[in-house]
Design a protein that fits this description.
The structure is a single chain. The protein has about 120 residues and is mainly alpha-helical. It has one domain (about 1-110). The chain has helices at about 1-50, 75-90; strands spanning about 60, 65, 70-75, 110. A two-stranded antiparallel ribbon has the order 1-4. It has a two-stranded antiparallel ribbon with strand order 2-3. Helix 1 (about 1-50) packs antiparallel against helix 2. The longest helix is centred in the first third of the chain and has 50 residues, at about 1-50. The chain starts with a helix and ends in a 5-residue tail after the last strand.
Length: about 120
């Protein structure tokens, strides 16, 4: 009876271990696919930024910009790069410490005053 219990316990632990390994492998596959998608998006961001009329009253921030206080803010391109870098760090096993992230302020659109 003890042998059966030991065998069942070992089999249970081995199944849990194999499942954990499969999950990590699948996670890596998904993360690599995300990086590939980000790399596919980047040329589209550049192309869209070149097509944005500079005379529009509302401008979308494809790249970084300075606010009225001369504080630098990321645009879409920098945010995509930061996301990719974080995923690369995870894939490369670079440990990250938990941190408190600041609230997202603003957006990618700037509203200029209409000229009447």
């Amino acid at each position: 009876m003890k042998i059966k219990l030991i065998v069942i316990t070992l089999l249970s632990f081995s199944l849990i271990f194999l499942n954990a390994q499969a999950s990590e492998r699948q996670e890596r596959i998904y993360l690599i696919q995300i990086i590939n998608q980000l790399n596919a998006i980047k040329p589209l961001v550049i192309a869209a930024s070149l097509q944005q009329p500079k005379t529009n009253r509302i401008q979308f921030h494809y790249s970084h910009y300075l606010d009225k206080n001369h504080k630098r803010h990321n645009g879409l391109a920098e945010d995509l790069n930061q996301i990719e870098m974080s995923i690369q760090n995870k894939l490369n096993g670079i440990p990250t410490e938990p941190s408190v992230l600041p609230l997202i302020k603003g957006d990618y659109i700037i509203h200029s005053k209409s000229q009447n």
